[in-house]
Amino acid sequence: MKMKKLVIINNYKDDIPSYRKNSIILAFNALKWLKYEFIHFTDLKNKDIYENVLKSDGIILSGSRLYLSTIEDQKKMENVLRLIQEFNKPLLGICFGHHLIGHLFGFKIDYLDSIDSESDKIISLDFNPPLLEYKSMNVHENHKQEIKFAEGFEEIFDLYASSEECKIQAIKHKNRPIYGVQFHPETSAREDVKKQGIEFLQKFASLM
């Protein structure tokens, strides 16, 4: 099988938290046909690095502690937003990365109505239609903001899952291989949830 290259964009100020990064490493070290690397979002200012990322076979956008409800944080993400726009291969946004996708296509990112309702907890999601072959998953949620549903959303995206607290839990662009999930497949203290999250990441990689 031909080797594929996956780039994980680190959207945190410093490094991806180790408990999340370690799950990503565990998921992708098991795929012998895959080369992967982590690149910090600020490194995309470098033209050569940016162009090399565009040549990869897939991209994952990590979570972050930034908030796209602020103009300041939107400006920090200009190169990542441009990357989403220009990349035409499989791309997965996780939590904040999911928000970046929604923001790029013109939808508001703001706080949940109940700000701590999905903070550091496990919930069950049903996917309709199935997402990467999954009809349902127990997933780890830890977020305060969300993509706000608005008129025209379902003209651009297929909505795969909702929860009581957050309508837009999982999406795919109708015409491009762009996926977004509000949950963290790379995070959980519960072994069964962690195992399924790692398998979810591997299934995404298999799209490349």
Task: Give a description of the structure.
This protein has 208 residues and is α/β, with parallel strands linked by helices. It has a single domain, classed as Rossmann fold (3-Layer(aba) Sandwich). The protein has helices spanning 18-29, 47-54, 71-76, 78-86, 96-104, 153-156, 191-205, and strands at 4-10, 34-40, 58-61, 91-94, 109-111, 121-131, 134-141, 145-147, 157-161, 170-173, 178-181. It has a seven-stranded mixed beta sheet with strand order 2-1-3-4-11-10-9. Helix 1 links the parallel strand 1 (4-10) and strand 2. It is globular and about 40 Å long. 39% of the residues are buried.
Strand content: 25-35%
Radius of gyration in whole Å, from Cα?
Answer: 16 Å
| Overall 3D form | globular
CATH topology: Rossmann fold
What's the CATH H-level homologous superfamily?
Answer: Class I glutamine amidotransferase (GATase) domain
Write down the CATH class: Alpha Beta
CATH architectural grouping: 3-Layer(aba) Sandwich
* Helix-strand sequence: EHEHEHHEHEEEEHEEEH
Strand order of the main beta sheet, please? 2-1-3-4-11-10-9
Number of helices: 7
Give the low-pLDDT segments. none
- Mean pLDDT, to the nearest integer, reads 95
| N-to-C span | 12 Å
Total E-strand runs: 11
State the helical fraction.
25-40%
Kindly name the structural category.
alpha/beta
Domains (count): 1
Major beta-sheet overview = 7 strands, mixed
